[in-house]
Amino acid sequence: MAFGSLYTDVKLHPIIEGENLEFDSMGPAVGAALDITANSITLLTAGVYEITANVTVRLSPGNESVIFGIYNGDNFISGSRFQASVGKITTVTLTIGKIVQSHVSEGDVISIRAIESNGCPEYLESSLTVKCIL
């Protein structure tokens, strides 16, 4: 059995392309090392994991958009891309996310990163959870 989770509070954070999303607090963990300094979860047991990423984004009018992905080290996990965009309407705050299953090795490091952004989108209330399912 292995699982772990990281969370961000309600403070707005700027989205920086290529950087891990920042986390403020740790949830429970077994078989996983939670790191709010590196903003990642290191898996201590190999297996198939269900990885869940959720991010609440605030997008302002003017064609703002953001694309996120779940990463294993520096490698994008296939199928983990999720995104939001807004046209020329009012400011929008919405929660977006993705659940994927992936084979991982002992010592693999899981994180959420912004792949691309347009405008000045921000995020809050994000979460990253991992759960060994096999």
Automatic annotation (TrEMBL):
Superkingdom of the organism of origin: Bacteria
Name this protein carries in UniProt: BclA C-terminal domain-containing protein
Species of the source: Metabacillus rhizolycopersici
